[in-house]
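thought: fold this chain, then report.
action: predict
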Amino acid sequence: MNRYKQTIYFMMLLLIYLSVSEFIIPIILSMLKLVGIYFEDKTYLIVFILFITPIICSLIPMILYFKVTKESVIKTIKIKKISMKNFLLILLMSFLIQPILNFIALITSFIFPNNVSNTMSSLSSIPFLIFLFVSAILPAIFEEFVFRGIILSGCRSTGILKSSLLSGLFFGIMHLDPHQFIYAFFAGTIFSLFVLYTDSIFASITSHFIINGTQGLFVFISSRLLENTPNQSIEEISSEYSYKLILNEVISIGLTAVIFTILFFLIFKYFIKINKNNIAPLPSSEMPQEKIITIPFIITIIIFLTYIIFTNI
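observation:
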């Protein structure tokens, strides 16, 4: 079995595992109760779940993958230094890309519930460093190791653009949330290009952390400000939040997204120019000739759609 097919099978099995992992956490909580560990505060229960989820959903499958395939961890995940110039460019692009991600999230929130925002808002009472650790640091490390490490490396034989899109697609699917899917797909594709053009996983870890951290900080501050807002005022604001105000918000965020996206792609073009020599040529045995749509690929899509349909009925 070639590496691409092996990676698609891994993604299919990972998705099945993620689909049933929601049943694993209640089992862990029940086991903790048996030894006298309780979470009376719902907020800290959510913190524990956010802490344990990357370990269950990313670390364990990653360990099993390398155990079975015997691949080099450093080579597959691309654990290499990143230059200061690239670091600063990625830092800047990570801020510039956020308005378009926010715009996508805003549009999809009209169709699907924004569960992430609700979860993050409920964590505003915990210390900020703990909040940052579970919402930005852990996902940035574990998710990037899997999707820009294992998945991207395994899809590399399909070419730069296709492998980036595949990594982004599977990253969107992995969230198992229709509201997150589109912007996670977009962000995952950009993260992949960062890694391919720097040949370092730290490029995507940096960007992922900046985006999650910035969004988390915004939610954290907003929630703290709302705590000091009288309930009556909140109700009045909610009742007066008309379609006109919603339209104005969509237009203002949309225009901001357009401007920042143009700036992003101008800098991204320069980023590609200075890093084009970092992309190592593929061996002739791994030239882009893979058949992307395979049976495990189709099964993965079907599992995702089935899960979304049944969990949102």
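thought: worth noting. Residues 3-311 form one domain.
final: tokens above.
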